Amino acid sequence: MKHMIKNHKRKISVLMMIFILLAISGCGEKGSGTTVSETTTIEYSWWGDDNRNQYTLDAIDIFEKENPEINVTCKYGVWNGYENRQHIYMKSQETPDVMLINYGWLDTYSSDGTGFYDLSKLSDYIDLGNYTEDELAFGTKNGKLNAIPIAFNTETFYYNETLWNSYGLDIPKTWDDLFDAAQIMSKDGVYPLGMTKKSLFFMLLAHHIQTTGNSPIKSDGTLNIDREQIGSILDFYKELLDKKVLLPVDSFNRNAFANGKVGGTLAWVSDAGGYCDPLKEKGYTVKIGEYICEPGAKSLGWFVKPATMYAISSNTEHPEEAAKLLNYLLNSEEMALKQGTEKGVPISSKAYSALKEHDMLTGFEAQADDMRKANSDSLHVMMPVLESENVYGTFKSDADYYLYDKLSRDETVDRIYNDMYKK
Question: Quick one: pLDDT at residue 20?
């Protein structure tokens, strides 16, 4: 019996020694082959279609292999759902560590600069040298670098040149060119232009600025449109519809452009391929048009802004790991080549160089961005308030009361004004 007890104790001692040795080996240096290292999990969120989702997931796989100590949990969805979810995240202060954000959210969620992490504090991990001070200024609030822009955006005209040529028409450069074209195209039920309500609003603002010289924004970045100005903008909108220059917004979608219902459209630089590639595939020639302008205008009236931006949560518990991921998304060659110009032409000098080296700056987004660069000195910096649904959405929905004979012009103007400035 005593012998059995001794043997049992010896077995226990051996097992304990093995356990201790395993525990010690688990504290070895990374890459030793016997390392059992802890991983840090961070969350990354974005919106997009299936194509964006897939290349992003593929890129994250590469990032995790290059950074085995970091595990990335991905959250993504379509724009509308993402925007609503982001609002909940920000209100509850439970935001993902790394986020794709819209430019307008800087004002909405970080007017004092505290809504997002100050990225300047993470410059050891984020290569800020890929950007100029002017470029980073778009993401700076109250002296804090809240976000970094991925690409620049401006509303750009795209035309089915084959269709315009069939009518013997040149691509328009002025508002009168559009009205003249409508007189010819409308006989076949074709409209010179069609666009979304946000693009419509920016086009109407451009015309307003060109013809009046009035800025719709105050120096502090708040809205500066009075009742009289709203009235003139509303009148021009109605004229565009009455004279068949513009396909009614509610009847427009991308197929209207692809199928020749409209001869041209207005959309962001980052959306150029989505609108133009289907026409190219059908054998049509697509032309990037100049920014429509009133002859003799003192100001071009068109705006530039970041297409999308990356930010880090102000509440992140892992700022260094989040910064490594953010730097990879913005500046790595792997991400640049997978993303291409889907989000627009990258601002990062490293990402841009990678695309140029691989001859990937030849698509419609690159052509549209060349138009932006050619006019960069004349474009206005967009203030985030103009992207508020409460502004551009209100104008469209309230204008319908006048267009569909529900309210008089003056009643509609009052309604638009009151709703736009509603807190």
Answer: 38
Q: Please state, in angstroms and rounded to a whole number, the distance separating the CA atoms of residues 376 and 288.
A: 16
- 339: nearest Cα among 327, 325, 352: 352
Q: Are 39 and 71 in contact (CB under 8 A)?
A: yes
Contact 220, 276 (CB under 8 A): no
CA distance 361 to 368: 11
pLDDT at residue 19, rounded to an integer: 39
- Tell me the longest C-alpha to C-alpha distance in the chain: 111
**Which amino acid is present at 84?**
N
**What is the pLDDT averaged over residues 322-334?**
98
- Least Cα distance to 95 among 87, 106, 107 occurs for 87
In the block, residue with structure tokens 């010179």: 192
Model confidence at 11: pLDDT above 50 = no
Q: Read off the pLDDT band of 37 (50, 70, 90).
A: low
Rounded Cα distance between 127 and 364, Å, is: 28
* Three-state DSSP state, 4: helix
Residue with tokens 């961070």: 42
Provide the 10 A C-beta neighbour count for residue 361: 18
- Residue 219's pLDDT band, with cuts at 50, 70 and 90, is confident
Q: Are strands 303-306 and 380-381 parallel, antiparallel or unpaired?
A: parallel
Q: 42 pLDDT band (50/70/90 cuts)?
A: very high
Q: Which two tokens stand for residue 233?
A: 């903008």
Q: Which residues partner with 310 through β-bridges?
A: 100, 148
CA distance 45 to 308: 13
Give the integer Cα–Cα distance in Å for 105 and 82: 13
Residues listed for the chain? 423
